[in-house]
Specification:
Elements (H helix, E strand, L loop, with lengths): L14 E2 L5 E2 L16 H4 L2 H4 L2 H17 L3 E3 L2 H8 L3 H13 L3 E4 L6 E4 L10 E7 L4 E7 L16
Antiparallel strand pairs: 1-2, 3-5, 4-5, 6-7
Helix pairs in contact: 3-5
Length: about 160
């Protein structure tokens, strides 16, 4: 497929306000509503270690958190299952794994279950992560090493300072 002369992609042009101030176009390239996902999920390498069902459940919980505007909320397993398609049996394992990773705190004593989304700084992250580098036209990745929060004291033996 060839490109036509009018198909070149370029940086968005700033708009002018009626008072002379300059503003940039809306930062919604998809043109549809969406919700934010913490960059640390990818950059820490945590997303690579998670199963698809764990990522599905975490994204569903993020969506609910964004909709309600609160870090802590109550929702039943049936509602979550209708949203993300995870069966109740799998949900038990997935919720336990998210809690083990420090991403979510779950209070099962309440009905419906109460979920508290934890800040990325409180997550138990893997040792190695990925960081995006480059520009919008040339993206690459670089490895990032860090001391795990749950370090055993043997960090110096494997070259960490």
């Amino acid at each position: 497929m060839g490109t036509q002369s009018g198909d070149t992609a370029s940086a968005p042009e700033p708009r002018k306000h009626r008072y002379g101030r300059q503003s940039w176009p809306d930062r919604n390239p998809l043109g549809v509503p969406y919700f934010p996902v913490p960059l640390e999920l990818i950059e820490s390498g945590l997303a690579r270690q998670m199963r698809a069902s764990e990522l599905q459940r975490y994204l569903t919980l993020l969506r609910i958190m964004n909709y309600l505007g609160k870090l802590s909320f109550s929702v039943g397993l049936e509602v979550l299952g209708n949203m993300d398609g995870i069966s109740p049996r799998t949900a038990f394992r997935v919720n336990a794994k998210l809690e083990e990773r420090g991403m979510v705190q779950i209070d099962r004593e309440r009905n419906p279950t109460n979920y508290t989304m934890m800040l990325p700084s409180e997550w138990k992250k893997p040792i190695e992560g990925i960081r995006l580098t480059g520009t919008a036209y040339n993206v690459s990745t670089s490895r990032r090493l860090g001391v795990p929060k749950w370090g055993t004291g043997s960090e110096r033996q494997i070259g960490w300072k």
